[in-house]
Amino acid sequence: MSNQIAGILAGIGLILMFFSAVNGVIGILAFVPFLIGVYHISKNLNEVSIFKSFLIVYFGFCVIGVLTFFLGLRSILELYYIEIISKYLILFVISISWFIYSVIVQVRNYRLLAKLTNIKAFDIASSLIKWGAILAVLLVGFIIVVVGYIFAIVGFFSLKEQQTTP
């Protein structure tokens, strides 16, 4: 698959991920075109680590989502509030840790994509995602992260055929 088609797939997957906040099923289905696109891009660029690290990050988010769902179902049946609060606190710490890990991985991957493809949008996306994650405590960071993903989408849609390394 060419880089241009793979970039379109990855870009469409990222666009669909924006709707995952509204409907979790769309978010899970959005991983498929994104990961297919990233797989072919990383294969064409001879840098398979990009795909592997994105796969690990998104698989981890799916696991955390499933754990949250089942913990929510179970907490409806339990009457021990201390136990419920402790489980949610543990899940919260795991989620925050995974969020920090995923930001590090995404920043590294988008910087590597910027270096290998000479597309400045990936470098801007990595900087915005990093600073947005840092400023997420102030809630303005989430808007910066969304703008960063928009730059990543632009970067994926900007991929051309000649951007393959031997």
Task: Describe the protein in words.
This protein is mainly α and 166 residues long. The protein has one domain. The protein contains six helices and no strands.
Defining traits:
mainly alpha; 81% helix
Write the layout of secondary structure elements.
Blueprint: H1 3-17, H2 24-44, H3 49-77, H4 81-117, H5 120-134, H6 141-157
Helix pairs in contact: 1-2, 1-6, 2-3, 3-4, 4-5, 5-6
Secondary structure: number of strands: 0
Spatial separation of the terminal alpha carbons: 15 Å
| Category by helix and strand content | mainly alpha
What is Rg?
17 Å
What level of helicity do the residues show?
over 70%
Summarize the structure.
The protein has 166 residues and is an all-alpha fold.
